[in-house]
Amino acid sequence: MSGADGRARRFLRAWDDVRGRSGRRVVDLVRHQVAVVRAGAVLARSTATGEIERSVARTQMAEVEHEGDAARGELVRVLRRVLATPVDREDLFRISRSIDDVLDHLRDYVRETDLFGPEDLGFAVEPLQAVIDGLDELETAVLKMIEDPGSVTVAVLATRKACSRVRQLYQTRLTELFTGPLEMDTLRGRELLSRLDAVGRRLGEAADALADAMLKRSH
Question: Which family does it belong to (predicted)?
Answer without folding.
Answer: Belongs to the UPF0111 family.
